[in-house]
Amino acid sequence: QVQLVESGGGLVQAGGSLRLSCAASGFRFSIFDMNWYRQAPGKERELVAVITRAGGRLNYADSVKGRFTISRDDAKNTVYLQMNSLKPEDTAVYYCNAVFLSLNYWGKGTLVTVSS
Known about the structure:
By secondary structure, the chain is mainly β.
């Protein structure tokens, strides 16, 4: 069955770095656009980063530009989010999302907590 499993979250001090991973299975990963979303307590889920299939296009939320980098390894069916210069406002549950036409899959999320 379809699975997206995020990992790499945790507690980090402001200014630190984390690398999130999302391992995909059960679908043809390489043809999907892959996204990272996040949801902070009491806030709506927001799109953080996008990487289209074959890595053809990258997009970032303004709040993370220059600090976060999305990448994918189609051989490993995995998408990554490298997060540098973390800020307390980056604290959220981070979700992996896969999209292809009407197909839309979600992981269960990984918690990132940035202390000041």
